[in-house]
Write the structure tokens for this entry.
Amino acid sequence: MSYLLIVPAAGMGRRLGRSEPKALAPLAGRPMIEWTLDALRGIPFARAVVAAPPGREADFEAVVAGRADVISGGDTRASSVRLAFHSLNPSDADLVCIHDAARPLASGAETQSVLDAAARSGAAIAATPIADTVKRVESDYVVATADRSSLVAAGTPQVFRADLLRRALAAGEEATDEASLLERLGIPVAVVEVSRLGFKITTPEDLEMAEALLRGREPGAGSREPGRS
Ligand code: CTP
Ligand code: MG
């Protein structure tokens, strides 16, 4: 059994308001994806694949050289993951870890916990409890309040035994995460609670928050200084 890593990075960050790939957005002096790969650098992945926006592969290769292979991603996140999975061609027992390029502050230790949970159960995802009260809204009016005690926000890393992920991806369906595809097949997915620091950078405010957090880190407190190798 090997650990394999897929980093979907083929999105163009429409909500970030840039016309460049989001994963290459400058963040505390380095492209976002460098921080993301750094966050997981302590984990012994046998192979890693980054799915880049078609036509931008060379830009990604320049950034991730020697750390991951770069492939051409698809139109949707699910298709990018599918293409990356097929390029890895894993053995059934391998554990495939999928982690968004857009989550540069994820924790390596928590990622290991998700890998451990998936090694036991076959499928596990990182998730955070919902802190706010969640309401259903129609035409700008509240129509219901959800019971948040049984709700979590699903993020990444998401880790699956390759045989299960292969089955889930084979259906060719779309979903905003891979766990949904397993759920549709009735495959149990374990939940590992993680810190909210692994948030996904979606909007300009998210980028500002990540920038402040990374700039505020003590040198040597888990990430490299910008510009040093
Ligand atoms: N992603 C991908 N292939 C796509 C779309 C998204 O690999 N066709 C990746 C993104 O690069 C990101 C992750 O999936 O790392 C989560 O997607 P999201 O946050 O939605 O990023 P974008 O699609 O780039 O952002 P937006 O939806 O605002 O355009
Ligand atoms: Mg998107």
